[in-house]
Design a protein that fits this description.
The complex is a heterodimer of chains A (93) and B (601).
Chain A: E1 2-6, H1 8-14, E2 18-21, H2 29-39, H3 45-48, E3 60-63, E4 66-67, E5 83-87
Parallel strand pairs in A: 1-5
Antiparallel strand pairs in A: 1-2, 3-4, 3-5
Chain B: E1 8-13, E2 18-23, H1 26-32, H2 35-46, E3 60-64, E4 78-83, E5 90-95, H3 99-105, E6 110-114, E7 121-126, E8 129-134, H4 143-153, E9 159-162, H5 165-169, E10 176-178, E11 182-184, H6 189-195, E12 198-204, H7 214-230, H8 232-241, H9 246-252, H10 274-279, E13 282-286, E14 296-301, E15 308-311, H11 315-322, H12 330-343, H13 347-362, H14 368-371, H15 380-392, H16 397-400, H17 404-410, E16 419-420, E17 423-424, H18 434-442, H19 455-460, H20 474-491, H21 503-514, H22 520-540, H23 552-556, H24 571-582, H25 592-597
Parallel strand pairs in B: 1-6, 7-12
Antiparallel strand pairs in B: 1-2, 3-4, 3-6, 4-5, 7-8, 9-10, 9-12, 10-11, 13-14, 14-15, 16-17
């Protein structure tokens, strides 16, 4: 299973904190996002990605708490039992 | 002047009980922008850096910037600058709300308080006229009560900045609260105000702020407004979730210092997160003067032993009173936040000091008898009780009121204070975010996040994502962030606008308001000048470069958990780069050539 956690405005938009999906061998973060969008009734990808499918500046996607920017970006491969955390751009301080 | 700056300052001699109007030094205003920079210049010219912060010889300056009180972004900020009783460094604390703009509308860019009054007084300002009046009837009142009492004397028409009990009784991290819920929070500026027997400043102003070039100003304002509205952070995120959105971000990223920074993740983070606050005690958001971001949190707790209402907690408070103490009871944190606001205490240092006390207790260095209760991590009742005791100066609360460094040192364990230059670091672990550790070590007021917020690129990916474990290039990034922040603080604009607008927009704003013709580079040079001016004050005050360090825990105890498990701060690698990038000698002291280039020698 892949555990997906939604945070911040994404959680407010989707009105849910998390979802579990079956793991698919060799699936990337980008593919997971596309699969999620098909499954969820509310359009949400625009919160994380631009029209060309690239991450907005400030979008945070973590796989097992590691930022995919420092892995293989949206092409980061996923494995069974991975936890994926998603935050649309946000800040504070 | 009447171009951004009003062109006059108010000098209040508390010993003599007099108020005098003086022309603002225009040459200095141009070189130091205003606010933080200009007040630092005045402070350096007028006091000896080795002055005892609590002596009448120390001065307290409240300073607006040329953009304070104008429209366009979030232009309603001021700075309080003095020598800090907590750190011994220059202190400059920023606040928003409505008080800063009102000061401009009353005709003043800044107020310089000097000396010490024999009796409690407060300053009344009405459109260019000022007088000191008795405040014996206000002494001992909370910040809320003080504001209400003064407001009734002004028939409801004034903006007020005041201290609570913390500033009166010498809590080392007392702050100055304005508009009830906004605070010049860190470094103990409220303790200096209290030492002068100055309870409050109440101001009513009906004038405006003229700008030198109204057309260029309007264009700059429209551009900034559009960019802030468009930006997902300033246009939506900060308004909806406020700063507390960072609790989950930092916890998931493994950089939320927990239980006095013994770990970098907190199992109770979700319970104290911005998302949870928004679905429980948050009533609405709120803005400071002219701000379209509206990050303020208006909250209320009912049906709970911690019932109350007010504003906050903000992210740093949720961390300090929450994760740093192992506390996940959001109602207790919110209640302690209210107590701190009403007493006028910096929530960051308060929470970090409680976290430090909890570790001292668990290590057996301080006894239950001495504290008057047990004090384990996670004990929210004890924490709230100590907030009340600290606000009143009772029992062990007196020791909590000294801040974590003095507390830990008194038990022979100063290394358990998570501070630099005696200022507690805020809600980011220096082992998980390397550049932020460099910021803590080199910030001119001690470990602080709002001098060079490298969390923005290192964690949030704004304006671009940097690897938080990388050390290469961090010194250069930090210098730019620190210099730009010095300009923002000096201009009178909220730092949060910088998530949406940058140096080009600030250059346009400043030029249009003041009639100057600065390039973007000139503006950053002004920031560099301000930074070096503050550094020179600290050096002369005896805070030498050996103080550019981090707590031993950050340097020697690897993070035990999270994605940065095993990491320590690589400060020794970054610090020489930083000195070099700043144009300082290897010893961390600005070179004569550097000072000359900035007009500081
Ligand atoms: S962004 Fe928040 S703190 Fe800054 S001026 Fe606006 S409301 Fe005040």
């Amino acid at each position: 299973m892949i555990k997906v956690q939604f945070f911040s405005l994404l959680r407010m938009l989707l009105k849910q904190e998390r979802i579990e999906l079956s793991a698919i061998e060799g699936e990337t973060v980008a593919q997971l996002l596309a699969r999620l969008q098909k499954q969820l009734p509310t359009p949400f990808l625009h919160k994380l990605l631009d029209d060309d499918g690239r991450m907005h500046a400030g979008t945070i996607i973590l796989v097992n708490r590691h930022n995919i920017h420092h892995l293989q970006g949206l092409q980061t491969p996923l494995n069974d039992n991975d936890v994926v955390a998603m935050f649309p751009p946000g800040a504070g301080g | 002047m009447n171009k951004g700056w009003k062109g006059q300052l108010l000098r209040v001699d508390l010993t003599a009980g007099t108020c005098k109007i003086e022309a603002l030094n225009e040459e200095w205003a141009k070189a130091y922008v205003g606010g933080r920079g200009l007040a630092s210049k005045y402070l350096c010219e007028e006091i000896s850096p080795d002055v005892d912060p609590m002596s009448p010889k120390n001065k307290l300056i409240m300073a607006t910037g040329p953009l304070t009180g104008t429209y366009g972004a979030a232009n309603g900020r001021y700075m309080v600058v003095t020598k800090s009783p907590l750190t011994g460094t220059i202190a400059s604390s920023n606040s928003g709300g409505y008080f800063p703009s009102e000061l401009k509308y009353a005709g003043f860019d800044m107020i310089i308080f000097e000396g010490k009054s024999k009796h409690p007084v407060y300053l009344q300002i009405r459109d260019g006229k000022a007088e000191l009046v008795g405040a014996v009837h206000l002494w001992g009142k909370s910040t809320n009560e003080t504001e209400d009492a003064i407001l009734s004397e002004f028939h409801g028409d004034a903006k007020i900045a005041c201290i609570g009990s913390a500033g009166e009784i010498g809590v080392h991290y007392a702050c100055i609260v304005n508009d009830k819920h906004r605070a010049a929070g860190r470094s103990g500026v409220g303790m200096v105000m209290g030492s002068k027997n100055l309870k409050a400043v109440a101001v009513r102003g009906t004038g405006g702020v003229q700008v030198a070039n109204p057309k260029a100003y309007r264009d700059a304002a429209l551009e900034a407004y559009g960019m802030l509205k468009e930006n997902p952070v300033t246009g939506q995120g900060l308004g909806a979730l406020g700063t507390p959105v960072l609790v989950n971000v930092m916890n998931q990223s493994g950089g939320l210092p927990t239980r006095n920074a013994q770990t970098g993740t907190f199992e109770g983070a979700e319970e104290i997160s911005g998302e949870t606050l928004a679905s429980t005690y948050l009533k609405r958001n709120k803005s400071c003067m002219g701000c379209i971001i509206s990050c303020g949190r208006v909250t209320k707790i009912v049906d709970n032993k911690y019932a109350g209402d007010g504003e906050g907690p903000e992210y740093e408070t949720l961390w300090a009173i929450g994760a740093a103490c192992g506390i996940s009871d959001l109602a207790a944190i919110t209640k302690a936040n209210y107590i701190c606001n009403e007493a006028g205490m910096d929530t960051i240092t308060f929470g970090a000091t409680i976290g430090c006390a909890m570790e001292l207790f668990e290590k057996g260095l301080v006894s239950e008898k001495e504290i008057g209760m047990s004090l384990n991590f996670g004990d929210s009742d004890a924490m709230v009780k100590l907030a009340e005791m600290t606000a009143k100066g009772e029992g062990f609360g007196k020791k909590i009121g000294l801040g974590s460094y003095r507390l830990a040192e008194s038990y022979g364990a100063p290394e358990l204070s998570m501070s630099v230059k005696k200022l507690e670091f805020p809600a980011y672990d220096a082992r998980a975010v390397q550049g932020m550790g460099l910021e803590y070590a080199t910030s001119n007021r001690g470990a602080c996040h709002v001098r060079g917020y490298l969390i923005s690129p290192e964690i949030l990916g704004l304006p671009e994502k940097l690897d938080p474990q990388e050390t290469e290039g961090k010194a250069g990034w930090l210098k730019i962030f620190q210099d730009f922040t010095a300009v923002v603080d000096s201009s009178g604009v909220c730092l949060f606008t910088t998530f949406g607008i940058g140096v080009p927009q600030f250059t346009k704003f400043c030029n249009a308001a003041t009639g100057t013709d600065m390039s973007e580079e000139d503006l950053l040079v002004a920031g560099d000048r301000i930074y070096n001016r503050e550094r020179m004050f600290n050096l002369k005050a005896g805070i030498d470069p050996s103080q550019d360090k981090l707590p031993k825990r950050m340097l020697e105890e690897p993070l035990p958990d999270g994605p940065h498990q095993g990491q320590v701060s690589k400060l020794p690698k970054m610090l020489p780069d930083y000195y070099k990038v700043r144009g300082w000698g290897k010893d961390g002291i600005p070179t004569e050539a550097k000072l000359q280039s900035l007009g500081l020698s």
